[in-house]
Design a protein that fits this description.
By secondary structure, this protein is an alpha+beta fold. It has 3 helices and 5 strands; from the N terminus they run E-E-E-E-H-E-H-H. Strand 1 and strand 2 form a beta hairpin.
């Protein structure tokens, strides 16, 4: 199963379980198991260790101590739609973790911007100085 461009996970690595939901559904909430829970062992995801670290950092509250990523969904009344929503969330999380973040390089302000800033400060100072009455120094 493809979860991101070029990232394929075997279907048996995705473990679904279903339980009763507290979401919408009226009386069906008490009768049907529509809440979907997806468990994926992070080591089973074919992504780089750096990408796995970013995935864990972004979804730290969804990662168990055993190293499983746990995604739950109970927004829909249908078990199949909740299952699809879990897969969509997994795809989004993996897609956002794969690209390497751009490194920020320090930049210095230009001479012109520094001169404009100092000129503005002098102008504001002159305005405040002109508000004082004569002999108040």
């Amino acid at each position: 199963m493809e979860i991101a461009p070029g990232v394929y996970v075997p279907s048996d690595a995705l473990v679904f379980s279903f339980s009763r939901s507290g979401g919408p559904g009226g009386q069906n909430v008490n009768k049907r198991s529509t809440k979907a829970e997806l468990r994926v062992f992070l080591a089973d995801l074919p992504i780089t260790p750096a990408a796995a670290g970013r995935l864990v950092a972004s979804a730290s509250r969804m990662v168990s101590e055993a190293g499983h990523l746990i995604i739950t969904c109970d927004q829909n009344r249908s078990q199949e739609r909740n299952r699809a929503e879990c897969l969509d969330r997994l795809r989004k999380m993996v897609r956002s973790a794969i690209p390497e973040p751009r490194v920020r390089r320090k930049t210095r302000p230009t001479a012109g911007s520094q001169a404009r800033r100092l000129e503005g400060k002098k102008r504001d100072s002159a305005i405040k100085r002109s508000r004082k009455g004569p002999g108040s120094e």
